[in-house]
Specification:
There is one protein chain. With 353 residues, this protein is an alpha/beta fold. The chain has 2 domains: 206 residues, 3-Layer(aba) Sandwich (Rossmann fold), CATH 3.40.50.1460; 134 residues, Serine Threonine Protein Phosphatase 5, Tetratricopeptide repeat (Alpha Horseshoe), CATH 1.25.40. The protein has 15 helices and 8 strands. Strands 1, 2, 3, 4, 5, 6, 7 and 8 form an 8-stranded mixed beta sheet that branches. The radius of gyration is 21 Å and the shape is globular.
Length: 353
Amino acid sequence: MPGTVLLLAAAPVGRGRLVDAASVLPVLAAVAPSVLSGTDTATVVELVDPLEPQAVLTRLRAAAAAPGPLTVFLTGQLQLDRRQHLPHLALARTTPATVRYTALPWHWLREELRLRPDGTTTVVADLHADAESWELLRGRPLGCGHNIALYGRIAPPPARRTVAAPAYMRAVATILRSGHRPPPVELHEQALSRLTEEYGGPGLVLTAPGPGPADPHTAIAACVQTGRHGDADALAARWERAAALAHGAASEDALHWAEVRADLAMFAGDAARSCRAWLTVATTRLAMGQAADAVAVEAAVDRAHHQWGLIHDPERARELGSVLAELRGRVPGRREGALDHVRRQLSQLQTQV
């Protein structure tokens, strides 16, 4: 089966740049797509110093939805959202004061990859951290989710007024240019060996080989990829019921499966069902006492808002829009004007029969 490769190099423009992320892309781009992906054929998508987090999210979402193996080569720098203390991938316009609005939250990457079938996704990362992120990540490992293989390193901030080189990714690219792709763990070890020899040490090493046995997500993803959306939802509903019985309907396990079902409705093209499911998840999390700016709460409302905009039936849009407007009043999210957008759309819907 053909593979997909996403080459992403991102760093701020100007004085905030810690690493020359884009400098490694010509070396990676010179590697045959089949070697980059480890498959006979592959589609390669390249993103260089992107400006907007939503644009990166769109490309990431498309890559995550593609069938077959997915490999993400990620080079860039991490900066901390000072409000929630969450790591973000800095983009071209990111400054320390605008991280929350101009950088890509790391949990967005994790969220988009979470429904990938086990054993099909590898992330190779060469990241440089600013001082705040470095202190945080020294005690809190960075991951992509239980079903994703992650290899790479996080380097500490370079000396002041110095722009570092993506040495780990350059080592990876040099090894792959030989025309042979070793298994990811061997590729990682070879790159670390070169890095230690040339630069004296890798920083924080990222090694997460991914799961052994398959879990229900594999079967669900297979159903989606073959168009059996009803079977996928039925399987997820079974796991949701089991989690609710074992841990309670408001438990994280049960909410996880509710979120899976919301995504499945989106994949099936049922925007109203997806919107309703995300609204329920958000309402449940708030009722549990989670903060309005908690990551999971914001994500649920944002996704409900997005799906609501895709509903064509005015009556259903009015019904769900009223609930969304109430939630948006409590959970404004990161994008300014979200509540005003809902109110304007609702006003227009009132004039439609």
